[in-house]
Design brief:
Elements lengths: L15 H9 L10 H8 L3 H13 L4 E4 L5 E4 L8 H6 L9 H7 L6 H20 L2 E2 L1 H7 L11 H12 L5 E2 L8 E3 L11
Antiparallel strand pairs: 1-2, 3-5, 4-5
Length: 195
């Protein structure tokens, strides 16, 4: 790896591994990154960041997806285990938590049966996003809320409780602004374990 100067900048050519370090050193390992995130850390041009990220995609180290007309994100792939049943029979410990475990831990209002219904509503919203990897708030309200109102009197009340918890689930990329598109990152490559 090339040397850095007193300001932490690379003094020679930036290797692709430097961009990979940006992914490894982030606090939230599940959050996808943009070229701007990499540019900021490496203090390089957008072109250099894109080149390094694309090299890592070609090497199989990263995955990428277009998320808007001119936007793209990159993430470290998390491959689903191919033999979950066999691994459990053999008593192997799984390091990744299942979505159901995460849903049990996220904050939702209520207790008892009400909380159970709200957790089920959160799972239904998540499953909807997996099946529709680019969805707007209005689509969740139209397609998930009617069957999973979970004791909320209004659609807005339901959304205000569900959407912060939905952000916590694996592969979910929430919009930066209100009313914009929620995305599920992973598509056919990543199907989370729901149970």
């Amino acid at each position: 790896m090339p040397d850095r100067n007193e300001h932490g900048q690379y003094t020679g050519r930036i290797p692709p591994e430097a961009a990979l370090e940006v992914f490894e050193e982030r606090e939230d390992l599940g959050r996808p990154l943009t070229a701007a995130d990499v540019m900021e850390v490496l203090e390089c041009s957008r072109r250099t960041a894109h080149n390094k990220l694309n090299e890592l995609v070609e090497a199989g180290e990263l995955r990428t997806r277009k998320v808007g007309a001119r936007s793209r994100v990159w993430w470290t792939p998390i491959e689903a285990p191919t033999d979950v049943g066999g691994a459990l029979e053999r008593g192997e410990r799984r390091t990744a938590r299942t979505v159901a475990q995460i849903v049990e831990e996220v904050e939702l209002p209520g207790e008892g049966k009400t909380l159970e219904r709200r957790r089920a509503a959160l799972l239904a919203a998540y499953e909807y996003l997996i099946e529709n990897p680019s969805a707007r708030k209005s689509e969740f309200l139209e397609n998930v809320y009617p069957d999973h109102s979970a004791g909320f009197e209004s659609r807005e009340g339901w959304w205000n409780a569900i959407q912060p918890a939905l952000k916590e689930l694996p592969g979910v990329d929430p919009p930066n602004e209100r009313g914009h598109i929620w995305t599920f990152l992973g598509g056919h490559r990543f199907r989370p374990t729901l149970g």
